[in-house]
Design a protein that fits this description.
This protein is of the alpha+beta class. 26% of the residues lie in helices and 26% in strands. It is built from four helices and eight strands, in the order αααβββαβββββ. Strands 1-2-3-4-5-6 form a six-stranded mixed β-sheet. It has a two-stranded antiparallel ribbon with strand order 7-8.
């Protein structure tokens, strides 16, 4: 399948997919003990488990989607030509998991585990501080090679208006630090003398 045909196959599922992932992230954030958890793996497991629960609830209502539990994972077959799974990933499109036989087989078109069918991952990508979902991407790959990826993140488009500055608050504060002479930033000297 091409990128365009995958976009078409996922078309009516995009809102559900966004809900599945963002609701799982919110579930984790709302846990009273989430701030005290010590390991990223714990967070990833909780979010992954919740994505599975949300996905079963949301996607089981579609007649053309078959949900398959296979070797500790959930795969979602759309019709006869597309299968996907949910993962945590990075901006380059690589999922963040140990390369088990199952995950290697998922990305190997020669694998007998999956028939000749397009396989994609739907990945959530966290921001640099790992405090929020920055993107939701669809990734097609063969082994370690990324064929293509695209974003399906739905945003509300809310724009927050900043308040106008108070006219009486025009006093400029005293500098906290001074640059030393000859400081180089991005290969340019900022102060020469």
């Amino acid at each position: 399948m091409t990128e365009d045909s995958v976009k078409q196959a996922l078309g009516n599922l995009i809102s559900d997919i966004n809900f599945i992932i963002t609701a799982a992230w919110k579930y984790f954030q709302d846990l009273p003990e989430s701030e005290r958890m010590q390991f990223k793996r714990t967070r990833a497991n909780i979010v992954w488990e919740r994505m599975g629960i949300n996905a079963i609830d949301r996607l089981s209502r579609y007649e053309n989607i078959q949900i398959v539990k296979i070797q500790g994972s959930l795969w979602f077959c759309v019709g006869d030509n597309l299968v996907f799974r949910f993962k945590k990933g990075n901006h380059a499109g690589y999922s963040r998991n140990y390369p088990t036989q199952n995950s290697l087989a998922f990305h190997d078109p020669q694998s007998s585990l999956i028939p000749d069918i397009q396989r994609i991952e739907i990945q959530y990508v966290l921001n640099v501080t790992e405090t929020a979902i920055e993107d939701i991407i669809v990734v097609a790959r063969n082994g370690k090679t990324i064929h293509w990826l695209f974003s399906i993140l739905e945003t509300e488009g809310n724009v927050v208006e900043l308040p106008e500055p108070d006219a009486s608050a025009t006093q400029i504060s005293t500098p906290v630090a001074k640059l030393k002479k000859g400081v180089i930033v991005d290969n340019e000297i900022l102060i020469k003398d």
